[in-house]
Specification:
The protein is about 35% helix and about 20% strand. By secondary structure, it is of the alpha/beta class.
C-alpha cells in the first residue's frame, strides 16, 4: 500500500487507523495494512462506478481509495455510530467522499443504487446478521459485487491470535485485554469447528447490541451469505496463497442472487 505523508497524517486522526494500520506492534499493523491492500485491489475494478463502504468506521479505506488513483464515481461511507459519521464528514470534507448514517440507507433512493459494496470487519460483530445481509442485498444493484472481509477465529489461526492478543494486552496495545477468554472446551470446539456455528457467542449491551470476536465462524457466515448471494471468490489474507483455514482474515467476493 502506498500512501503519501499527507494522507498518513490525515488517517492518523482516525480512531481505528491509530490502533490498526499505525499500531505500535509491527505484526498487527502489517496484517491490517495487508487487509486494506486486498480491499483496494478489489475496489479498483469499480473505478468510475458507485461504491458503498458499509460500516466504514473512521473512513480509512475510502480515504485510501480516493488517493489510489482508482476512485469510484461516487463513494459513500455508512456507519452506525453518529460520532464517527460526524468526525468523517469533518476530516474528509475536502475529498469527494460522502458519509451517512446506516439508517439513511433504508430510504428508497439507495435501493439497488450501488455497483459495489465493501463491508470490512463488520459482520463478525453483528447480532442480527441476516437482517444486515438482507439490507446489503437490497442496496446492491443487479450485477453488482459485494466484498466482505471478516477475521478467521477458528482452527490454528485462533490459537495464534489469542497468544498475540494476550501479549499485546500485556504491552498495553489495542483493545485486546477486553477480548473474551475461552475455556478449554471452547478452544477445542473452535479449533475443530466446521461450517455450523460452534459456540454461543456473548452479546454485549450498547446503543446497538454487538459481539466481540469470540466464537465467530467465517464458514457459518459463508453459508448465511449464500442465501442472498453467490460467492465467486474466497481470498485469504494477509497472505493470499494461504488457504483461509490458515489465514487470519478471509474475503468473500459475491454477486446478488436474483429474486431472493
Amino acid at each position: 500500500m502506498s500512501a503519501g505523508s499527507g494522507l498518513d497524517e490525515l488517517l492518523r486522526d482516525g480512531h481505528y487507523a491509530a490502533k490498526q494500520i499505525f499500531c505500535r506492534d509491527r505484526l498487527i499493523a502489517w496484517s491490517h495494512r495487508r487487509r486494506f491492500e486486498t480491499g483496494l485491489e478489489l475496489a479498483r475494478r469499480f473505478r468510475g462506478e458507485r461504491l458503498l463502504d458499509y460500516g466504514c468506521g473512521d473512513g480509512t479505506f475510502l480515504a485510501m481509495l480516493e488517493a489510489s488513483g482508482a476512485a469510484p464515481e461516487e463513494a459513500i461511507g455508512a456507519e452506525l455510530d453518529a460520532f464517527q459519521v460526524t468526525d468523517c464528514q469533518r476530516r474528509f470534507r475536502s475529498t469527494g467522499v460522502r458519509f451517512v448514517a446506516i439508517s439513511e440507507l433504508d430510504a428508497s433512493e439507495h435501493r439497488e443504487r450501488y455497483d459495489a459494496i465493501m463491508c470490512m470487519e463488520v459482520l463478525e460483530h453483528v447480532v442480527d446478521v441476516d437482517a444486515v445481509i438482507d439490507r446489503l442485498w437490497r442496496l446492491l444493484a443487479g450485477g453488482g459485487t459485494l466484498m466482505v472481509s471478516v477475521p478467521v477465529e477458528t482452527g490454528l489461526p485462533l490459537v495464534l491470535k489469542q497468544v498475540a492478543r494476550r501479549i499485546a494486552g500485556w504491552r498495553g496495545i489495542g483493545d485486546y485485554p477486553g477480548t473474551s477468554p475461552y475455556t478449554p472446551a471452547e478452544y477445542r470446539a473452535s479449533v475443530f469447528a466446521g461450517s455450523r456455528q460452534h459456540l454461543d457467542r456473548p452479546v454485549y449491551a450498547g446503543a446497538t447490541p454487538y459481539h466481540d470476536h469470540k466464537g465467530f465462524n467465517w464458514m457459518a457466515l459463508a453459508e448465511r451469505l449464500r442465501r442472498r448471494f453467490v460467492i465467486d471468490e474466497t481470498i485469504a489474507s494477509p497472505i493470499a496463497w494461504l488457504r483461509p483455514r490458515l489465514a487470519t482474515q478471509v474475503w468473500f467476493v459475491a454477486r446478488k442472487r436474483a429474486n431472493c
